[in-house]
Amino acid sequence: MTTSVSPTRLILMGAATTLAGIGLGRFAYAAQLPGLIEAGWLSARDAGFVGATNLLGYLVGAVLASRLARRLGPGAVIKLSTLLIAVSFLASMWQGPVWWFSLWRFVAGVTGALLMVVAPSLIASQLPESKRKRGTAWIFTGVGTGVLISATLVPLLMQQGPELTWLGLGLIALLPVALVWRPWPGLPQAPQQGQQQARVGLVLAAIYLAYLLDAVGFVPHTVFWVDYLERQRGFSTWAAAIQWGLVALGAISGPFLVGAIARHAGWHRTLFTALALKGTAVLLPMLIPGTLVVSLSSFTVGALIPGMVATTMGRIGELVPAHVHATAWGRATALFAVGQAAAAYLMAPIYASAEHSSLIFIIGGTALLCAATLTLATPLFAKHKPLTEAS
């Protein structure tokens, strides 16, 4: 069934899914951790384990996303996933055993991945060509909004206790449910036999690998940055919180900046530029001292958290037909999940060694610059240009 929805409403619905699935479902828990540990709800070790189940759920959801969308329909998957995000917060109001929190963080991970794979690719396929680059990027403004909520509202709620914090997040997560609970378009139809398609296997594989390397570079700032600034760089708690606020401001503005660049330069050049800038921003504070450099790093990496998602998805959209975009994007998301989980586990013991803590930023930045080099070389992998490529 095909449902006609205006482009503006589609973009708003897409932003609601990324707010629920990633902005709240992923980042709000990280902001709660200190308060949950201090209140005795979780030990430091249990909190890490609960967080790991979210990463595992994200991987599972990315693998299953396109199959569930075909079986249940994309609208049903999006609505149910958004609702379950809110339920996962509300269910966590009970101070149960570790397995209880792990269960709901797993649910949030699965549903977050389903929303990240199904909704953006479906919306991009429905947008008119003139609005596709701008709209594809703007869908991910929900990520930055969620980061801003985690940086501001969660600490305030935590002063009232974990129960009210879970309740507040659950009520906030119901707002995206109201926005997505309306008819959705159907999946794009496969083209008729005989329609020419470009051979882009090697290029697509290179984009997948670059996105996996981006996941490695994603971990240092999103997991260790605030603690690193406090314990290794001598920032006060308030000053470190300001840096996380800059990450949030960057995450809100990132999709707009990426969309503007893509409209003028195309997704291929935008992807290379984003990876090179992000790699430089991760490395720069390790090479040059000063609060200004740290602040620039916070804002730039924050902007390219949703910016890299939008750019990678847009680039994949140039390389594959619309009816297989969700499958290709799901594979990229699954590889990202593998990369971030592996990087987090490998970087944790390195970071625990105080004299080597900055090494994780060097690893992350180097991985991003390698990804930028790989994307720059992708035209060499293609025997001919994809029909839709804007290079």
UniProtKB/TrEMBL annotation:
Pfam families xrefs: MFS_4
Keyword Transmembrane helix on entry: yes
Residue span(s) of domain Major facilitator superfamily (MFS) profile: 9-382
UniProt keyword list: Membrane, Transmembrane, Transmembrane helix
SUPFAM superfamilies associated with the record: MFS general substrate transporter (SSF103473)
The keyword Transport is assigned to this record: no
Domain of life per record: Bacteria
Membrane-spanning segments: 46-65, 77-96, 102-124, 136-158, 164-181, 202-226, 238-258, 328-352, 358-382
Name of the molecule in the record: Major facilitator family transporter
Organism whose genome encodes this protein: Alloalcanivorax balearicus MACL04
